[in-house]
Amino acid sequence: MRPLAHWWQRARRIVNRLIGNSQPASLTPIHHPTNMAASKTAKPNSILQGSSAEATEMRPVLQQFLTELEELHMSYYNLKLSEVPAYQTIREQDAVYKGRLALAAAEAINRSHNSPNENHQVRYQMEALLQQLLRSTLVLSAPEWQRLFEWYGLDFGKPNTDSLWRGLMMSPVLLTLAQVGKHIKQSGLDDDLRAYLTQLKDATKGYDSGYGSAAAIKIRVKLQELLGQEAGDDALPAVVFTDADPFGQHLNQLVQALAPADPATRHWLRLFQLWQRASGGQPTAKYRKELETAVAALGPDAVHGFGQNLLQVLGSIKAEEKTHNNEHNGRTYSYTSWEYLQEPSLTVGKGLIWTMQPLADTGILLALADLAAKSYRKIPGKGPMAMGLGNACLLVLSQCGLPGVSALARVRAKIKQTNTQELIARYIDKASQELGVSPEEIEDMAMPDFGLQEGRMVTEFGDYTATLVLADGKAEVQWQKAEKLLKTAPTALKATHASELKELKTNQALAQQTYTALRDRLDRSFVSARRIPWPWFEQYYLRHGLMGELARPLIWRLHHPDGSFQDVRWQHEQWQDAHGQPQAPTADTQLQLWHPVLAPAAEVLAWRALLEQAQLRQPLKQAFREVYLLTPPEERTRTYSNRMAAHILKQHQFSSLAKLRGWKYRLLGAYDKGYDSETATLALPLHGLQAEFWVSEVNADGAYNDTGIWNYVSTDQVRFTRGTEPVSLPEIPPLVFSEVMRDVDLFVGVASVANDPQWRDNGGLAQYRNYWESYSFGELGEVAKNRKLALERLVPRLKIGKVSEIKDKFLVVRGKVRTYKIHLGSGNILMEPNDQYLCIVPDRSVKTMGAPGVFLPFEGDAVLSIILSKAALLMDDDLITDETILRQIGR
User: Fold this and answer.
1) What is the distance between the alpha carbons of residues 593 and 589, in angstroms, rounded to a whole number?
2) How many other C-beta atoms can be found within 10 angstroms of the C-beta atom of residue 622?
3) How many angstroms separate the CA atoms of 219 and 720, rounded?
4) pLDDT at position 860, please?
5) In the predicted model, what is the mean pLDDT of the chain?
6) Residue 443 exposure: Cα atoms within 13 Å on the Cβ side
């Protein structure tokens, strides 16, 4: 039942209309008898004591509203205006009345900001009322609209930075601008209000970054629309982008280059306006519809080319380091920050990315994948460069079918953030559910072949032939004319076949990225022990133009329905075992990626001998892969392994490696001591397990960076858990145990401070120099043992073999001046006769596969390459000219 006040007010309005009274009846609140006494004795609220005509007129109404809220025990958090009788009465009033009430409420809110002892709860209640009024229809004159903004604190006659910020960020400006838009349509825009709105638009330019920038951008875009709207339907939309970054400047140049007389100009400007309004994590259905309409008006081809160019511009912009100076108490303080794009440009970029989703082809997908990888790249003091852009790219890729899934798989290999990798996994999982296949199967289905057949694609360009070929893991384009080989693409083709050359270059880049992503995916898949049905394997692995280049050189285990199996490799167009005997899979055969822990030592050695004798290089380490078996100490401890404990790692390097191998890890910070994140974890869902590698911060003076992150961590146990319970190590499948321990050994072997030859001499941590020395020249781990086996075969074939030999943990090299012992684990050097340390810093920018002219059956080992290059240098130590090295040798 509606309150009596409702019927009374309705009767008053009818009477006013009958007698021709244009002014609305004043609101005289009527309450139920039980509330009459309370309302009569209520103490007037101080924020309602404004001096304006609206404040005086509406004071009883607002006081009644506040009194009823108190009687109903409603605060800001449980406020339900629909249950407040006074608000029900207000709702029935006309637009002129509500406009005056909105002015009075805004004045009261303004007074509350200037009354430090005022109850904030009352202000919040008044703000809630004002917002509801602005969602209805209000009528105010142009000066009154300006006065409403000024009550928000947006009074440019009285400049106040705090008041301006509060007005823009904390007041219902957008709701008010929507009301002003209705006013402009009905009454036009007078000069004073136009000038005020222009000032308001200019004021938003100071908030292009930082807290509240998103709100400021929306306000500026709305003001641009309103100021353009008042010029009439025939006027072009007003669009201005920020000038504070290169992307906004580029867009402004594009706007200025548009010809006013061109009919398409209006459509471009409207599309730009839509981009400025891109908000939220994904576009709404209404926003998508608006984008579709805008694209249709311009033509998909025009938007496609324009949008692809803008994506390339976004991808080419680099983050810049900027210096800021602040004055305080007569002193100047300086600091630097890294900036990529301002918030307005990030918003426009998001709108652009969403627009390209229905238009995405190979070129667009490549641009989106590259932009996504760039957006998640970290910059100092901020973290990811532009996470909003990256998320928009991933969303669009996830909506582009199998080609989009393929792009997501390539991007995932480049991104280190765990939450982003999980987001990509969810997108792939969602796509797989829609197709009724597993996530692994949809990644197989999404693998493009780029026109390759057995790793090659031949394209004719008139008299010239280009061959895109995968050789040793690299995508290369080989040119020839007739029988003559060319070093580069013919210059003449750049004019006659520009688009075809661009497509070829794109395919080359995509083939390289996809090959690398697939190789890494296979390398991480050992632990899953996935079995692939033969028909599926033949289609998506063996006969695939790109994946076949990875699958054929690898060893696979054929599982038959009767439980038997054979280990085979594709050779001479058939499956053969390690002894060259042919094996034929059937339709019900399943294939699993072979691992040396699955086979007896004799078979592993047979595969290694086969690869070496035939000089067959595998794209990833398989036959020569390290094997980690359970040791007696681990059998005694049962639930944990200390094999990788007591090492000092560079934390950032360790974190990057862990995430690349699929582990979750959060950097330990000096600000929280990291007690909640002192483990790196690897989910093993197919086995119902989780692997844990425990670490702790190395707490020493100055042992953290400028952002409070510890520079070093010390290693502890490796455990396996099921749920929250530890699992006995003998219960862990040998393949799972071996791969987890190999990962951890990789973390230690790469990120240990002992692998930095300059760490000790450049300061390091004094209390850990003994660790550096013991690890640098200590016992060999599994990786180093494999390296030793490789060197035992390699060294006799090399020039250094005449003056070198393997002794225990070292490659001993006899130079002309001294004899050198190169440690096979770290690559560090001791000089005889007194084991003096020799520091030689390798050039990390040079990537080698080992030694020139020497075959390695697996992709290069960086430390192996370093050892060989150091040995080659030191065997002719009398020819060394580097002063730093000479001083150490002659000491």
Assistant:
1) 13
2) 22
3) 53
4) 58
5) 85
6) 22
- Alpha carbons 137 and 615: distance in angstroms, whole number: 82
- Give the pair of three-digit tokens for residue 670: 């000096």
Residue 6 burial by Cβ neighbours in a 10 Å radius (0-12, 13-18, 19+): middle
User: What's the CA gap between 506 and 514, in Å, rounded?
Assistant: 12
* Range list of H helices, 114-172: 120-134, 142-151, 161-170
- In angstroms, the Cα distances linking 472 to 285, 455, 512, 619, 849 are 47, 11, 11, 8, 10
Q: Which amino acid is at 528?
A: S
DSSP states along 524-562:
HTGGGT-EEEHHHHIIIIIS-TTHHHHHTTSEEEEE-TT
Residue with tokens 């995916």: 521
What token pair was written down for 366? 């490549």
Mapped onto helix, strand or coil, the DSSP state of residue 139 is: coil
Burial 206-218 (b: 16+ CB within 10 A, else e): ebbbeeebbbbbb
Interaxial angle between packed helices 343-355 and 263-276, expressed in degrees from 0 to 180 and rounded to the nearest 10: 120
Helices (H), 242-361: 246-257, 263-276, 285-298, 300-316, 343-355
Kindly report the backbone phi and psi dihedral angles of residue 759, in degrees, each rounded to the nearest multiple of 5, phi listed first. Answer: -60, -45
From residue 460, alpha-carbon distances to 468, 470, 506 in Å are: 11, 18, 17
pLDDT at 152 over 50: yes
CB 377 within 8 A of CB 334: no
The count of other CB atoms within 10 Å of the CB of residue 412 is 23
User: Could you give the CA distance from residue 706 to residue 531 in angstroms, rounded to a whole number?
Assistant: 48
* DSSP type of residue 384: E
Find tokens 């061109």 and name the residue. Answer: 262
Whether a cis peptide bond, with omega within 30° of 0, leads into 344 is: no
Instruction: Give dist(CA 220, CA 207) in Å, integer.
Output: 10
Percent of the chain at pLDDT exceeding 70: 89
pLDDT in tens, 555-580: 999 999 999 999 999 998 999 999 88
Distance between CA atoms of 47 and 38, rounded to whole angstroms?
20
Q: State how far the Cα of 31 lies from the Cα of 25, in Å rounded to an integer.
A: 17
pTM here is 0.72
pLDDT of residue 123 exceeding 80: yes
Place of tokens 């839509």: 274
Least Cα distance to 27 among 74, 2, 1, 64 occurs for 64
**Secondary element (H or E) of residue 395:** helix 387-398
- Quote the tokens at residue 594: 């072979």
507 φ/ψ angles, rounded to the nearest 5 degrees: -65, -40
CB burial of residue 868 (10 Å; 0-12, 13-18, 19+): buried
| Cα 174 from Cα 172, distance rounded (Å) | 6
Q: Is the pLDDT of residue 846 over 60?
A: no
How many angstroms separate the first and last alpha carbons of the chain?
102
Provide, rounded to the nearest whole percent, the portion of the chain with pLDDT above 90: 49
Q: How far is CA 786 from CA 146, 257, 623, 632, in A?
A: 79, 64, 11, 21
Helix/strand/coil percentages in the chain, nearest 5: 50, 15, 35
Q: How many residues in the chain? A: 891
Residue 325 amino acid letter: N
Residue type, 807: K
Helix pair angle (191-203, 142-151), 10° resolution = 30
Backbone dihedral angles phi then psi of residue 555, each to the nearest 5 degrees: -100, 135
Name which of 673, 655, 597 is nearest 630 in CA terms.
597
- Contact (CB, 8 A) for 429 and 439: yes
Longest dimension (CA), the chain: 119
- Given a contact cutoff of 8 angstroms between Cβ atoms, the answer to whether 140 and 99 are in contact is yes
Q: Which residues have CB under 8 Å from 120's CB, separation 6+? A: 112
Are 568 and 556 in contact by the 8 Å Cβ rule? The answer is yes
Q: Which residue has the tokens 């007194």?
A: 834
Q: What pLDDT is recorded for position 244? A: 83
